Amino acid sequence: MEFDSTFLLYSGILLLVGLVTGFINTVAGGGSLLTLPVFIFMGFDSAVANATNRVAVFYQSLTSIFAFRRQGIRGMRYGLWLGLSATVGAVIGTFIAMKMDNEVFKTVLAIVMFVVVILILLDPLLKKAHAIEIHSPLRLTIALIIFFFIGIYGGFLQAGIGFVIIATLSTVNKMNLVKINNIKVIVVFIYTAMSVAIFAWKGVIDWKYGMVLAVGQSAGGWAGSVWSVRKGEKWIRRVLLLMLLVMGLKLLDVPFLNP
Asked: pLDDT digits over 156-208, tens only?
């Protein structure tokens, strides 16, 4: 039997990257800010990279949902409402993503990376672990409207969406970070299912590499859900900051990183 050395090499890279980013996605967010550049650096067209990445996000989110539930963390009903709102927006965002030029996509991704770096440095959100939750019809309405626009962005790019969801739920509902992470994976799972369906319909998913990354991210997502309940995530944000800065500069073709 003849082995494809390129496939084995890329699969090994994606499994490792998947483990790390699945953990990061569940604990904080921003894993796609690492997986998308990896796909692009491997030579994938931006549309294929964006679409293939969603396969892993879908399975990792599903795994994380079950892991949170096994630890007694609930929030399915609220997550379902927000996920349905985000799904409507995701349909719009997914079609936008498929029409975007390669170079424009890389520039947008780099800009998003630097915006996320700023959000992490400001860090006003993760300090609300003991806030009193606020639930009312008005708060739900506000959240539904915001999550529609979150869905547009999630359908378009996905990268960094976790930070936006954390910002929204900590501000609108004053939820603690563990509960936010649980609702986050529910929402992402629901709207990503729609994005994957559209990308598959258009034939822009590389299922072979998508499933390899999915295996790694699912394992990392399970570990991240356990860690999220038991511990904090400060060290992850430090590593993520460094990776975002380096990859963002590389995507922008900064000379010293692109000899």
From this structure: 877 777 777 877 887 787 777 777 778 888 999 999 999 999 999 999 899 99
What the block records as the tokens of 74 is 């609930």
Q: Is the separation of the CB atoms in 45 and 102 below 8 Å? A: yes
What is the C-alpha radius of gyration for the chain, rounded to an integer number of angstroms? 17
Greatest distance between any 2 Cα atoms in the chain: 62
Angle at 161 between CA 226 and CA 34, to 5 degrees: 75
**pTM (2 d.p.):** 0.77
137/242 Cα distance (integer angstroms): 41
Contact 24, 163 (CB under 8 A): no
Alpha-carbon distance of 107 to 227, in angstroms, equals 33
Half-sphere CA count of 64, side-chain side, radius 13 A: 41
Residue 185 CB contacts under 8 Å (≥ 6 apart), including other chains: 26, 61, 64, 65, 68, 221, 225
Closest Cα partner for 75 from 90, 65, 85? 65
What whole-number distance in Å separates Cα of residue 159 and Cα of residue 204?
Answer: 18
To the nearest 10°, report the CA torsion of 170, 160, 199, 169. Answer: 0
Sequence-distant (≥ 6) Cβ neighbours of residue 188 within 8 angstroms: 57, 61, 83, 154, 161, 162, 165
Residue written as tokens 């992850």? 236
DSSP 6-41: HHHHHHHHHHHHHHHHHHHHHHTS-THHHHHHHHHH
Coil vs helix vs strand at 160: coil
Q: Residues 102, 251: contact at Cβ < 8 Å?
A: no
Residues 43 and 93: beta-carbon distance below 8 Å: no
